[in-house]
């Protein structure tokens, strides 16, 4: 009886130990080829992202460069240059007695610098000489005024040149460099205009002095001719 009971229990234990159906594997199979392919795809995606980042960086740098190239120069000397030219022009416009005008010059030379007529009296000759002398003195005074005006503006011109050179060297873009260069050219043009005014004023004074000497000789000849005519 006891032996039979042991056999039954052993049979039950074996029945419980052996599964009723097939056993399923509970682990993942490693596939080297699939792993390599996945790594290659991930690397390709990462490379595309890096390329996009580089492209965006290049576009940003290009936009920054364009902004710099289009930035306007913060310094402008135009108003000061125009003011200096206006002052020099005003000094030339203050020419005394004989203006820078072709018609006025022709009239003055006809009246005071041309050949004196034989009928001119000594008083007429003296009046002509006085008028010429006054005109010559005024011409030299005008020339000195123009010179003083130009010399007085040298400090301003020097500071403008220094500021424009600094602005040109520190230009952040093409437009600023171009504008600084244009203003330097304008400064040179203004200096040439002042130099032209100086030469014109000095030349006017010298020409009036030379014309006065020539007219004085003509008047002397007229006096001598009249003297000879009256004293044969």
Could you explain how this protein is built, in words?
The protein has 232 residues and is mostly helical. It has a domain at 78-230. Helix content is 81%, strand content 0%. Helix 3 packs antiparallel against helix 5 (122-152) and helix 6 (154-169) packs antiparallel against helix 7 (174-230). The mean pLDDT is 77.
Unreliable sequence segments: none
Count of runs of 4 or more consecutive helical residues: 7
The biggest beta sheet reads: none
User: For the CA atoms, what is the radius of gyration?
Assistant: 52 Å
Let me know the number of strands.
Answer: 0
Order of helices and strands: HHHHHHH
**Form type:** rod-shaped
The chain-level structural class is: mainly alpha
Spatial separation of the terminal alpha carbons = 199 Å
Give the proportion of residues in helices.
over 70%
What value does the average pLDDT take? Answer: 77
Brief overview:
The chain has helices spanning 2-17, 32-70, 78-93, 102-113, 122-152, 154-169, 174-230. With 232 residues, it is mainly alpha-helical.
